[in-house]
Amino acid sequence: MQTISSSEFLIRFWGVRGSVPSPGPQTIRYGGNTSCVEMEVGGKRLIFDGGTGLRGLGKYLLKYSPVEAFVFFTHYHWDHIQGVPFFFPAFNEEDCFHIHGQVPPEGEEMKMETHFHHRVLHVDSPVPVSDIKAKLKFHDIVCGEVFHLDDIEIETTPLNHPNGAMGYRISWGGYTAVYCTDTEHFPDRLDENVLHLARDADILIYDAMYTDEEYHNPKSPKVGWGHSTWQEGAKVCDAAGVKRFVVFHHEPNHSDDQLDKIGEEVEVLRPGSILAKEGLEVIISRGLVSKPPV
After folding, report:
1. Which of 8, 28, 36, 213 has the fewest CB atoms lying closer than 10 Å?
2. CB-based contacts of 19, cutoff 8 Å, min separation 6
3. Phi and psi dihedrals of 188, rounded to 5?
4. Do the Cβ atoms of 31 and 93 come closer than 8 Å?
């Protein structure tokens, strides 16, 4: 069993793409897996979203069994749940996962446990639900509430995304990270919910799927698709007093070279920003130290 440091706040990226996995020779450096972010905070392991990046995290965790982790879903579009049936620790009866989320509007009559087994682990899943042996403990979140895991404070807010999504603000030991993916900015103002969530944060992990040019492309506009741009993310960081901007949820058609170019442009506007890569670690309890992908 791995002992997680009780004095550090570490963020590790396992899946950084949006919408659909994008493996191939053009996406090697940044990775092609969909959303999954792990945080080691004050001795606890937190997992945000279960995209295909969750599979790699599961393989990593096998050597640390028994594992206890706290899992948080922003929403349940495919790119945020596809890794769940392939998360190897779920099949180990010694492991334990505390699963948090809010049931979407069309399933309000359900509890999170029912929603997880019937919607996340769909009948078409390649893995039978009965094969899952880990202890699963379910927690229904009301979006907008603040709750605690011992001395870790977690604040939530609704995001502007089709069928809804939830942003998370994680605070511990005087440090704060914000996970704010799958949200679309407004045309005439900054989103007050996002600004509140991001206030004075050390790290803002933001849905910067498009560039402004792509978002407003007259031939193929992305308005109403539920995602934002890195330029809008930079505006939020400036307005909210964020220390470090992390560009996340990369467009699946963006190659490594295209993302390098975006990174150069972000650096000019917002020096010290990071483009999320699979395997990248950021330790905010050491003054925002970032370690290259392993």
Report:
1. 213
2. 34, 79, 209, 251, 252
3. -115, 0
4. no
Q: What's the mean per-residue pLDDT of the chain? A: 94
Task: Give the integer Cα–Cα distance in Å for 279 and 291.
Answer: 9
- Among 27, 28, 36, which residue's Cα sits nearest to residue 55? 36
- Which residue has tokens 């191939």? 24
- Regarding pTM above 0.90, the answer is yes
Query: In sequence order, what DSSP letters do the residues of the chain get, joined into one string?
Result: -PPPPTT-EEEEEEE-B-SS---STTSTTT--PBPEEEEEETTEEEEE--STHHHHHHHHHGGG-S-EEEEE-S--SGGGTTTGGG-GGGG-TT-EEEEEE---GGGTTS-HHHHIIIIIS-TT-SS-GGG--SEEEEEE--TT-EEEETTEEEEEEEESSTT-EEEEEEEETTEEEEEE-S----SSS--HHHHHHHTT-SEEEEE--B-HHHHT-SSS--TTSS--BHHHHHHHHHHHT-SEEEEESB-TT--HHHHHHHHHHHHHHSTT-EE--TT-EEEGGGSSEEE---
Out of 1-15, 77-91, 177-191, which region has the weakest mean confidence (pLDDT)? 1-15
Residue type for position 18: G
DSSP string, 214-270: HHT-SSS--TTSS--BHHHHHHHHHHHT-SEEEEESB-TT--HHHHHHHHHHHHHHS
At residue 64's C-alpha, the angle toward residues 29 and 88, to 5°, is 70
CB 99 within 8 A of CB 112: yes
218 pLDDT exceeds 90? yes
pLDDT given at position 108: 63
